[in-house]
Amino acid sequence: MEFDLIDRIRARLARRDDVVLGLGDDAALLRPKSGHWLVAACDVLNESIHFSADDPAEAIGHKSAAVNLSDLAAMGAEPAWALLGLSLPDADSAWLDGFLDGFLALSDRHGLRLVGGDTTRGPRSISITVHGWVPEGAALCRSGAQAGDDIWVSGTLGDAAAGLQRAGEGAQADWLRARLQRPTPRVALGMALRGIAHAAIDLSDGLLADLGHVLEASAVGARVEVDGVPTSAAFEACKADPGQRRAWQCAGGDDYELLFTAPRDRRLDVEQLATQQGVPLTRVGVIEAEPGLRPVDAAGQPCVIAARGWQHFAEPT
Amino acid sequence: MEFDLIDRIRARLARRDDVVLGLGDDAALLRPKSGHWLVAACDVLNESIHFSADDPAEAIGHKSAAVNLSDLAAMGAEPAWALLGLSLPDADSAWLDGFLDGFLALSDRHGLRLVGGDTTRGPRSISITVHGWVPEGAALCRSGAQAGDDIWVSGTLGDAAAGLQRAGEGAQADWLRARLQRPTPRVALGMALRGIAHAAIDLSDGLLADLGHVLEASAVGARVEVDGVPTSAAFEACKADPGQRRAWQCAGGDDYELLFTAPRDRRLDVEQLATQQGVPLTRVGVIEAEPGLRPVDAAGQPCVIAARGWQHFAEPT
Q1: Out of A4, B111, B144, B242, which residue is the most buried by the measure of CB atoms under 10 Å away?
Q2: A129 shares its domain with A189
Q3: Range of A154's domain?
Q4: Are A283 and A151 spatial neighbours (Cβ–Cβ below 8 Å)?
Q5: What's the domain count of chain B?
Q6: Does one domain contain both B116 and B150?
Q7: Residue of chain A whose Cα is closest to the Cα of B133
Q8: What does the DSSP assignment read for B124-178?
Q9: pLDDT tens for residues A113-146?
Q10: Is residue B40 within 8 angstroms of chain A, CB to CB?
Q11: Which of A38, A42, A74 sits opposite B30 (nearest CB)?
């Protein structure tokens, strides 16, 4: 990491006892946690693709931490360390300070400590690798879903997609926009789901696309009640036709809620978790042995969703 | 990591027994090594800054692995895992295949296994986080240099800078160019220096700049014989004035050789290492208690080097 920016960052870091050596050498030195697996994920956010040039730096910092923490949450992992690869067109310390405001506020809340990275010149881009710990054998993988499992989602869906399209008015529009720019990673929920959930994924690409990843990894199918997807009051108030609303909720992406599957006999445990965590948890379907993803409407009739989620290199279908 | 590119990558990966779960979930699951510290580093390479748009994809892949392996080498770490954040303007599978040819050939040689990452659309940029292991307490840090230590460098210096300026002719020019595009990370040397070296750093920013980082971290000074810097035959044959040659060798950067300090009474061990490893190791100076970096010429007279190394956000001085 370069030396004109590194001191600004180092001055602001919280302590972790398992960091032997943090920023400022060729690499960080870190103490592993015995009896645990290391969980590691990487996400890249590029200007004009994942955020807009006029988004506040603080919101970009928040989102950069959030999307990575969300990957840890989806594995049931406890956050530990992050490395930050930052490309900037110039050494803009005001932008960096704003970015760090957002990044560190959210990281600190979850015990995630910045331990290394690289800053360099280039089109604005943020690449983060996060690390966490999960007890051996207790990780939530995409491949664990079993026929008969309930399919649950946390929070409400479609808000980020509606926010991206600047749907709604006044305070409701602002709220939807905040859901897009400042998602809430479900870290505590993910950890609490160890031993309850069979499979989990975070909803970054959209409900149907991400559920599709779980189905593929688990070699199962699913029936999803698309009209039973949890909906926020702000989303409810949007003026948009039903097809558009379904597309936002089922294929919109960027909500960073958790989708997980759990056996039917754990429903009470899941409902208790919702209360304990203060996060709505809603059943939206069921895992079936027959491969394929079967969206149905409130009447149980098959229905078609216009878009199938964010494909990073594909033309929209 | 996105699903149209991930299968191309996954099909090509070597095995490691400590990878519980690699590519394809929200995060990788990895087994720590007991009695060891985790070593983690991150480097970003951007088009037009760190490589040129017409560099072969295979060379970019090689260099991306090399600069990260070099960070592990500088800590004395044994390579383990990498995560790759890749931004590409389009889903160019021919480019990706070439990149992977270079990246995986070098990674495989050093037991470095790709376990995760993210591919997304954006200006071409490569962000890699590498992990390795070092026995507890045995890492080579920048902060360990002591007054009286010899200062050693591996290999030859200035080749990459001369290659960048397209110095030399014919086969010699090609060789210099290859030193720039395809650096050799000194992984085995770094591991062998555990217990011998007091401090180490890799030469990415240039001899004087990187030695400066060691001096600052160790709160010591140094005297460096700039005319004693090891020189390749191809560099020797370049037509360039002495000031230019010194600048390339002392401030050029991008050589990815190791600089390390070791006590005087370990000279024989270092010389034996050079033979064992087949890498020239050359004494270029001595650590002194008095802070400051004092370059001297062959006659021991103070001399001035025109440039002081790569500063990522500064104008050239």
Answers
A1: B144
A2: no
A3: 142-296
A4: yes
A5: 2
A6: no
A7: A29
A8: SEEEEEEEEEEETT----GGG--TT-EEEEES-SSHHHHHHTT-S-HHHHHHHHH
A9: 999 989 899 999 999 999 999 999 999 999 999 9
A10: yes
A11: A38
